[in-house]
Amino acid sequence: MMSAAIEVSGVKVAFGDHQVLRGVNCTVEQGSIVTFLGRNGCGKSTLLKIITGNLKPDEGTVSIGGRPLASYKSGELARKAAFLPQFHETPKDMTVLELAACGRYPYQHWWKGVSTRDREVVADALRRTHTYELKDRTMASLSGGERQRVWIAMALAQEPDILLLDEPTTYLDICHQLEVLELVNRLNREEGLTVVMVLHDIGQACRYSTKVCIIEDGLAARCGAPMEVLTPQSISEVFGVDADVEMRGGRPGVIINGLCSSRNA
Predict the structure, then answer these.
(1) What ranges do the domains of the chain cover?
(2) What's the predicted TM-score (pTM) here?
(3) Gyration radius (Cα) of the chain, Å
(4) Which residue stretches of the chain are H helix?
């Protein structure tokens, strides 16, 4: 049985009178890819922010690596888990190498310069994301997919056990979306990196996840293997679309046929 990388227990959070999460319980197993799914505004990104420590719950607890999240100092947590938010801005004249090197901040101190170890880790992160050949280019000169791979390289330079991604394919065309997700899948498969993602695309979540958690009515209402959770019935009930789910090329896939008949009525 795999040990838990992340445990969320009874998490509640409200913004004013709006109760976003009403007692979420979920476990992320070490070495898995877990994807949060749900309708817009259901609380997926809010839950991810709570797991990263960027937002405190009104009630409930989060544990990472068997330790309460609150027990981590910021630098210590950054060495354990790397978080890429949905939106990030980069100075136009910053190079790929300079951005990736920012991932070493949890290991650096103001009285020390950049070490040989720092340089080696950054170079390795760029190679693992196939962006080393871009190291002298400015971020502004890259395509969307290339930029996202560099951001992931920066996260890998933190040497984390866990990678947390909030909608990593936003604003990318389908080719670059798959490029990023294949990279994430490879890092998980070859290096055992635990990954937690928020995605909107049901088909991509089904194809690339070990486990999916559907956030519904403020709860992690349906969690499990993609083929168990993403059934035609559950997709219809949660997302209001008619879909078929089948194995394609050894991986589960979702085919959206259209809106449910009740929505077309």
Answers:
(1) 92-159
(2) 0.93
(3) 19
(4) 44-52, 74-80, 96-101, 116-128, 144-156, 174-191, 202-208, 226-229, 232-239, 261-264
